[in-house]
Specification:
The complex is a heterodimer. Chain A is 0% helix and 50% strand. Chain A is an all-beta fold. In chain A, strands 2, 4, 5, 6, 9, 10 and 11 form a seven-stranded mixed β-sheet that branches. Chain A has a four-stranded antiparallel β-sheet with strand order 1-3-8-7, with no helix packed on it. Chain A is globular, with a radius of gyration of 13 Å. The chains are: A mainly beta, B mainly beta.
Chain lengths: 114, 115
């Protein structure tokens, strides 16, 4: 059974650019949640996708958007990058949306914005 | 909205000594609590969770935590640590908001185990 994978591992962008991060969920999982982890901080919830629809959103501006595909893999898109967007971006997959369903995390994508 | 406070940013300890990592949460009618571990350059791994039932929760790698409703705490303990326990530990609480259940994380505690 393959775990949660994310690509790329590292990414360097400049302010104003756009970026797309990818996440492959664990086999059989239909829910993907995205988190932003700034240096020295805990992860912060960005949004969650369930069966290709956004199923909840944290306190992030609309320039953070996402997609979920029929195979339940997911993308996080960030437009108009700002320096404060530099962080580790984690995705987590689960069997469903309820908190009872354990979230399995990928290793993350480290984004640096210059 | 829920919040979590991890009282210690760093905890140094010698190998085979006991350790306690402290976590307090904001009060609520019902709450679900979690501890995650993050090894360097890796994602988060669930150590244990409290959903209901016994207030003493046992997890992986010999860790346990006790849910204390009156003190709104969920401290993580291990009776004897190993070098391999060196990592960042995050306490998290469930919160309903923005249309879904989500995890609210603390700022983390770095456990450094010395030989």
């Amino acid at each position: 059974e393959t775990g949660v994978t994310q690509s790329p591992t590292h990414l360097i962008k400049t302010r104003g650019q756009q970026v797309t991060l990818r996440c492959s969920s664990q086999s059989g999982h239909n829910t993907v949640s995205w988190y932003q982890q700034a240096l020295g901080q805990g992860p912060q919830f960005i949004f969650q996708y369930y069966r290709e629809e956004e199923n909840g959103r944290g306190n992030f501006p609309p320039r953070f958007s996402g997609l979920q595909f029929p195979n339940y893999s997911s993308e996080l898109n960030v437009n108009a990058l700002e320096l404060d967007d530099s962080a580790l971006y984690l995705c987590a997959s689960s069997l469903g949306t309820g908190i009872y369903n354990e979230q399995f995390f990928g290793p993350g994508t480290r984004l640096t914005v210059l | 909205a829920q919040s979590v406070t991890q009282l210690d940013s760093q905890v140094p300890v010698f190998e085979e000594a006991p350790v306690e990592l402290r976590c307090n949460y904001s009060s609520s009618v019902s709450v679900y609590l979690f501890w995650y571990v993050q090894y360097p350059n890796q994602g988060l791994q669930l150590l244990l969770k409290y959903l209901s039932g016994s207030t003493l929760v046992k997890g992986i790698n010999g860790f346990e935590a006790e849910f204390n409703k009156s003190q709104t705490s969920f401290h993580l303990r291990k009776p004897s640590v190993h070098i391999s326990d060196t990592a960042e530990y995050f306490c998290a609480v469930s919160d309903w908001g923005g249309g879904t259940d989500k995890l609210i994380f603390g700022t983390g505690t770095r456990l450094q185990v010395f030989p």
